Amino acid sequence: MTSKSPDSQLMEKIVSLCKRRGFIFQSSEIYGGLNGLWDYGPLGVELKRNLKNYWWQVTVHERDDVIGMDGSILTHPAVLKASGHVEGFSDPMIDCRTCKAHFRADQLVEKKGIKQCPNCGGKDLTAPRQFNLMFETHVGAATDESSIAYLRPETAQSIFVQFKNILEVSRKKLPFGIAQIGKAFRNEINPRNFTFRSREFEQMEIEYFCRAEQGMELLEYWKEERLTFYEKIGIPRTKLHVLTVPDNERAFYSKGTYDIEYDFPFGRQELEGVAYRTDYDLSQHQKASGKSLEYFDEETKQRFVPHVVEPSAGVDRTVLALICEAYSEDQAPDEKGKMETRIVLRFHPRMAPIKCGVFPLLKNNSQLVAKAKEIVSLLRPHMTVFYDESGAIGRRYRRQDEVGTPFGVTVDFETLGEKDAARRDTVTLRDRDSMKQERVAIQDLPAILRDRLA
Ligand SMILES: [Zn+2]
Questions:
Q1: Whole-model pTM above 0.90?
Q2: 127 CA distance to ligand 1 middle (Å)
Q3: Which long-range contacts (CB under 8 A, 24 or more apart) does 367-374 make?
């Protein structure tokens, strides 16, 4: 029997909670699942939307210098030939002849200087060969060379290819950015670490175009902007690490790249790359398409291909980081006052899938139920609300704690004004983290909650 490390136990608890409460399910699960693919359940989709919406808000809506786009997933092969993906977007793959498993060369285990299969420990391995990570398909009825298309391996290329159109319609002056959130696909040899390395994933990217002389400065600027973003969604600076990607590991065209990493239970891993890609991509597409992708500066009368700095974040990775960061266990009294372990997702209220739970103290009292439903209607235009009338009130609190709902409102007999007329139309407002309760007027609830959610 092997004993598991506390970190892998923690990861198992998180995976199990994700399934139990409807954050993340394995894709095609009833048919045995498809490796490296995941579906988001009712709470997972809310969390993911909160993340994407907030990113879009601060990146596009709150800035004058960034505009958005949404490109197609199926991509013309010429785009990916020009970008270098058809030729070079591959990982070295090794097969184990004993158990027939495939691995990326860097995933082999080394024991006493001998490379071994991480699956069976076998030593009979093939030489590494290049495996292209792009998914290939055919567009239209013909399935020959001429109809090949690819599922995009990154969202960035659709931005580069539309650069000229967007420049013309937006009439932006350098420096300016184009932002996009969308799906990308990589046929990973060995997907792992839950949703961290998936075959289908979503990216949030900005291509920020500038003059060559601004590139290095903007690289620093965007690194800082992005670190601030993570703090605002509840990932503390102390859990983030900035790795300066060394010269020999950077893409050959990049003049500087930072990886923003997070301490996952399975190790320190990349959430986002911030790369100064120079004028490589636009120049490649200009050359391959024969169309000018130059920018004309009216003041200096110069014509040139802009450089670009790219902050590229993984949506699914960040969702996973939010869940890992939020997961905690503490001790709280049960119905009879006995201490028990409480699972709490301490999401930043901004990210929490449900903002407020609403509970009538008893479900068989029509006045309490009617009042609670009134509160649901009052809050619903402002936030996601969950109504729950079943079970003891303590159990209902626990269920909301476990999915990270920051606030709970309970309608009791005081709300009905039975004991004290002065308390009529007041409720208890419970805070998830402190478990403290306060008495507030129903009419003040929307303002109080909106204030605490911001
Ligand atoms: Zn093996």
A1: yes
A2: 14
A3: 367/416, 368/411, 368/412, 368/413, 368/415, 368/416, 371/411, 371/415, 371/416, 372/409, 372/411, 374/442
